[in-house]
Amino acid sequence: MSGLPAKYDIGIVGLGYVGLTLATVLAEAGNSVIGVEKRSDLVEMTNAGIPHFTETGLPDALAGVTQSKKLVAAEAFDESFGCDIYIITVGTPLSPEGVARLDMIEAAARDIASNMQDGALVILRSTVKVGTTRDVVSPILAASGKKFDIAMCPERTLEGKALQELRELPQIVGADDQATADRAAAVFRKLTNSIVLVSSIETAEIAKLVSNTFRDVQFAFANEVARVCDAFGVSAYEVISAGKLGYSRTNIPLPGLVGGPCLEKDPHILMESARSRGIDMEITAAGRVVNERQPDETVAFISGEIKRRGLSGPLKVNLVGMAFKGLPETSDLRGSMSIKVLDALKKALPGAEIGVYDPVTAQDELAKEFPEERNFSRLGDAVNGADVVVIGNNHPSLKTISPRAMKEFMNPDGFVFDYWNHFSHLPASELGDSYFAVGKAGAVGAAEPVRG
Q1: How many CB atoms lie under 10 A from the CB of residue 389?
Q2: Do 76 and 186 belong to one domain?
């Protein structure tokens, strides 16, 4: 650390998706920033100005702030530097029991406690169980005997638009007193004038959880609609699109896979928080059940359609779109429901040759994450010779080859199953009997509807 300034404006703990994008934008705003990350490979990449994930605009922005030394990365705090402000951005993944892990939060708090000086401001930005800021982070900091201010400012950016939204989205700030709230707000006011001061730390914690849980429940209802439409042999795409056309009171989203690093996790954290006060969130729980069981339900349909068509081994089944979403595009595989679909396909079709493709995730990364599967570098290669093509995310490039064109290159008796209704707007004459989608499986001649 020799040659680096002794004092940084801001220290970011955790250089994952949330931490690295925030550190970059804060450095661009003129702050001196140090990012502390235990993974040495990420520290090396950051100091070289190379992001470790795909994010629009980040390569150029990161290169600029690292070259100017406005942002540097280190593996740990040490005595050669300190910070006026610390922001915790480490992950809070779910344990196998479905409970949000706090070990990384606790470790970050201990590291800050050992490094901070009297008067430091500590901001928690990670998504946490309600009460974590007050009952977990604050006591660890207080045990140091040093004076500090603490605030909760939840992260709410959309992957693929993070640099833009950090400058545009209202930033929620929760603290126990006005002076601390104003101090935390000043950090984000360098990025945006849209600051939302809420009355308490817990209000800020709940606001983030409620926002993502609301979206999860909305998508779950859309997937329920898809199940009903399958049962009656009509198109969910048509039902939803026609029902909300010019009728803003019924703005139902289209059905599809629901996952990712937030939506698969945050409803569970909210439910865990509620249970600590004796409250069961029935609608939230039901929404998670609907969204989590969708891969098994839909793969059951795919397996049935394979049998109905008499497709025999060795089957070639290719899953395209492995990142948790395609729009805005990302390479992030965390919480991807495509992985759950892949697992369900492997269980249902043990003798099949399964391949994977993603428009954004690098082929070597796919090979690392999915070593048992064949991986493709082009969509056309994944379609060619396949018995079944499963479209797993909503990347726009996945709708550049129409079902009719796919059919020309696939097994003559093969078919496409589309989780995102990329082609459901096309007339039946363009789709034939070899295109199925969520909420469209019963509408085009399937032998049996999908059943729960």
Answers
A1: 30
A2: yes
Spatial CB neighbours of 126, under 8 Å, sequence gap ≥ 6:
14, 18, 88, 89, 90, 91, 92, 105, 155
CB atoms near residue 192 (< 10 Å): 16
What would the pLDDT profile of 117-149 be if each residue is shown by its tens digit?
Answer: 999 999 999 999 999 999 999 999 999 999 999
In a domain, 46, yes or no: yes
CA 112 to CA 77: how far, in whole Å?
Answer: 8
In angstroms, the CA 262 to CA 216 distance is: 10
Q: Can you tell me the distance from the alpha carbon of 451 to that of 75, in angstroms, rounded to the nearest whole number?
A: 50
**Residues 287 and 334 grouped into a single domain:** yes
Q: Give long-range contacts, CB 8 A cutoff, 24+ apart: 359-365.
A: 359/321, 359/326, 359/329, 359/395, 359/397, 359/398, 360/54, 360/323, 360/326, 360/329, 360/330, 360/331, 360/395, 361/54, 361/322, 361/323, 361/331, 361/333, 362/331, 365/331
Query: Is 398 within a domain?
Result: yes
What's the start-to-end Cα distance of the chain, in Å?
Answer: 58
Q: Give CA angle at 376 (314, 237), nearest 5°.
A: 85
What are the tokens at 195?
């600051």
The HSE-up count of residue 263 (CA atoms within 13 Å, CB side) is 24
Which residue, among 23, 199, 24, has the nearest Cα to 207 in the 3D structure?
199
Average pLDDT on 22-38 reads 98
Mean pLDDT, all residues of the chain: 93
Helix 266-275, helix 201-232: angle, nearest 10:
120
Instruction: Give the whole-angstrom CA distance, residue 207 versus residue 191.
Output: 21
Q: pLDDT tens, 309-342?
A: 999 879 999 999 999 999 999 999 999 999 999 9
- Contact (Cβ atoms closer than 8 angstroms) between residue 341 and residue 392: yes
Could you give the C-alpha distances from 66 to 73, 85, 188, 357, 411, in angstroms and in order?
9, 19, 20, 33, 51
Same domain, 67 and 147: yes
Asked if residue 158 and residue 61 are part of one domain, the reply reads yes
What is the token pair recorded at 314?
């060795």
Same domain, 371 and 292: yes
Record the tokens describing residue 449, joined without a space.
Answer: 């509807």
Q: How far is CA 367 from the centre of its chain?
A: 21
Question: Contact 265/314 with Cβ under 8 angstroms?
Answer: no
Report the run of H or E that residue 306 belongs to, with start and end.
Answer: helix 282-308
| Burial state string for 292-331 with b = 16 or more CB within 10 A and e = fewer than 16 | eebbebbbbbbbbbbeebebeeebbbbbbbbbbbbeebbb
Q: In degrees to the nearest 10, what's the CA dihedral of 161, 269, 53, 39?
A: 140
C-alpha 294/C-alpha 219 separation (Å) is 12
